Amino acid sequence: MPKQKKIQKKENMDMIKKMSIIGAAGVLLILIVYGIISLTNKGADKDNQQQAHSPVDENENLENEVERLLGVIKEVDTDLGKLSVFDIEKNEKIELVMDGGVVIKDEYGTELTFAQLQNGDMIESKYDINKMRPEHVYKTAKTWERKNISEVHINTDENIIEIGNDRYDYTDELVTIYNEDSFDLNHINEVDEVTLRGYKNTVWAVIMQNRHGFITLCNHSSYIGGIMEVGTKKLIDIEETTTVTVPVGVHKLLITKEGMMPYSAEIMIVEDKEVEIDLSDSTPKVGLVNFIFSDEDVNLYINNESINTNEPVKLNYGKYTLRAEKEGFTKVEKELTISQAYLDYPIQLERIPLFLNVSRPKGAELYIDYNWSGIIPISVPITPGNHTLTLRQDNHYSVKYEITIDENNKNNSFLFPDLVPMDSGTTDGTSTYNENTYQENNTDINQEPEESDPTYQTPAEDAYGH
Predict the structure, then answer these.
(1) 386 falls within a domain
(2) Strand order in 263-269's β-sheet?
């Protein structure tokens, strides 16, 4: 038994030795394989480094050289896959080759298709200078845009575009677009709406948004001098010939003039077409005027035409020349404006003054109704009716006369007898002027004598020429 245990122990030891030898051999084999792989990779790296410096690889690098551009699209050719761009920084035209792999986006980062690019778009791109294929095409935010503006003025002699106080340059490479076609800058009217795109102080694209048509007034003589409103932005003075340029579209039209019924309409303006507005059926506004005169039997004329004033007069709104006349009264001339439905219109006539002409006794003082009037001969204004005349002269008896001036619109002339001298009872030869010196005289007096009368003397002219 002890011998068997010894043999068994020896066999176990032999087994352990064999397993150790086998394990060591496995580890050695792994190390050998790792070394071979490392040597192989180093050789490959060395070959790659040698290839990197070979002439063939240098040519391949040149083929991948890229360039950047900032420009305006001149033409989009979807059939041939070509995009023509003018580089505004290098001042040269470039033709890019487009395919489905080119990334196209707008200025907000939204992806676009090639067909969505348009002439006049401002873009930036990076492209292969040998293959002319862009890596991407982006609508740029580096440029500016002014949308839907009007009153644009073009100076083709100096290549200047003016908008109010702003002035921009443009070149022969300017892109103009209307309905996908180019147009002549000289055809821009101040009412046309356009969009401008540019970079710094240069305009590179003009896109026509809305053109114009025309409004012409006919049979509108009653409205000459009035106002025509188109929408809320345009006011036009109405003249004998009135044709107005207005943007294409629907507009509210209002035609007004003082004294005329307003004309209003909604009209459609078509490009380059004329809309005629016939105002022959328009009627004036009418007012009723009640003339109130200060005297009866007044003759009234309006625009030199005699008017019956027994009842209120109908007149169209507007301005008129008025004249009122009556014998013995000063003529009234005024401008009459009718601007309301009913009007009371008073007319006050002033009587032409009558004149009293007294030519004798010369040197005597004349008092009319006890108010001093002057020295005879004299001509003074006087009103119709009864009056008291008093004649006074130093050292003579004063005389009082009662006269009547008729309402016959005629001047009155009088010759009175010479005053009677007083007895010289005072040291200075004069008499006191008091009631005791009046001499009542109710005898006939010479009134309006004929020139053949030897006692007649022409009255002196007064300040009025009478």
Answers:
(1) yes
(2) 234-237, 227-230, 249-256, 263-269
In a domain, 460, yes or no: no
CATH number of the domain at 400, please: 2.60.40.1120
Residue 81 has pLDDT above 50, yes or no: yes
Query: What is the per-residue pLDDT across 413-451, written as a single tens digit (0 to 9) for each?
Result: 999 999 999 874 443 433 333 333 333 343 344 454 434
Domain span at 185: 144-210
**CATH classification at residue 162:** 2.40.50
Among left, alpha and beta (phi > 0; psi -120 to 50; other), residue 16 is: alpha
Q: In the chain, pLDDT over 70 holds for what percent of residues?
A: 78
Ordered DSSP codes for 232-277: TTEEEE--SS-EEEEESEEEEEEEE-TTB--EEEEEEE-TT-EEEE
Euclidean distance between CA atoms 191 and 211, whole angstroms: 8
User: What 3-state DSSP class applies to 409?
Assistant: coil
Contact between residue 268 and residue 214 where contact means Cβ atoms under 8 Å apart: no
Q: 377: cis peptide before it, omega within 30°?
A: yes
- The rounded distance, in Å, linking the Cα atoms of 339 and 29 is 123
Q: Can you spell out the DSSP letters for 50-89?
A: HHHTSHHHHHHHHHT-EEEEEEEEEEEETTTTEEEEEETT
**Parallel/antiparallel/unpaired status of strands 212-218 and 243-247:** antiparallel
Query: Which residue in this structure is represented by tokens 């209120």?
Result: 312
Average pLDDT over residues 273-281: 91
How many domains does the chain divide into? Answer: 5
Per residue in 217-257, pLDDT (tens digit) is 999 888 899 999 998 778 899 998 889 999 999 999 999 98
User: Which of 252, 289, 246 is CA-nearest to residue 269?
Assistant: 246
Return the SS3 of 383: coil
- How is residue 193 written in tokens? 């709406």
